[in-house]
Design a protein that fits this description.
This protein is an alpha+beta fold. It has one domain (3-86). The protein is built from 2 helices and 6 strands, in the order E-E-E-E-H-H-E-E. The strands form 3 sheets. The protein has a two-stranded antiparallel sheet. The longest helix has 9 residues, at 63-71.
């Protein structure tokens, strides 16, 4: 993680700037949520981001994904009969 993008939360843990406040938004997130976003440090992103899966990835529901989307007024991701997912949110990565 780039040192200038994190704040220390304990001797062994850091948090991305912007994620430890009432209305969290990671400083590395670029774009407009609900319209199109990208992570500016995708290849260097934290394990927290690497491990977070969107709902219905590999057929598994993630209520944390639904909660994060709801915080921005977005509907949950819904599975399709084909096993694919549909979402009004477009996410792109660098």
């Amino acid at each position: 993680m780039p040192d200038d993008l994190v704040s220390s939360i304990s001797p062994s843990r850091v948090a991305m700037l912007g994620t430890d406040c009432k209305s969290p938004r990671c400083t590395a997130l670029q774009g407009e949520v609900g319209m199109g976003t990208r992570c500016s440090i995708y290849e260097k992103r934290s394990s927290t981001c690497r491990e977070f899966e969107a709902s219905w990835t590999d057929g598994v529901h993630n209520p944390d994904c639904d909660a994060a989307r709801a915080a921005f007024g977005l509907l949950p991701v819904e599975p399709l009969d084909s096993g694919e997912v549909t979402s009004p949110l477009v996410v792109t990565y660098a």
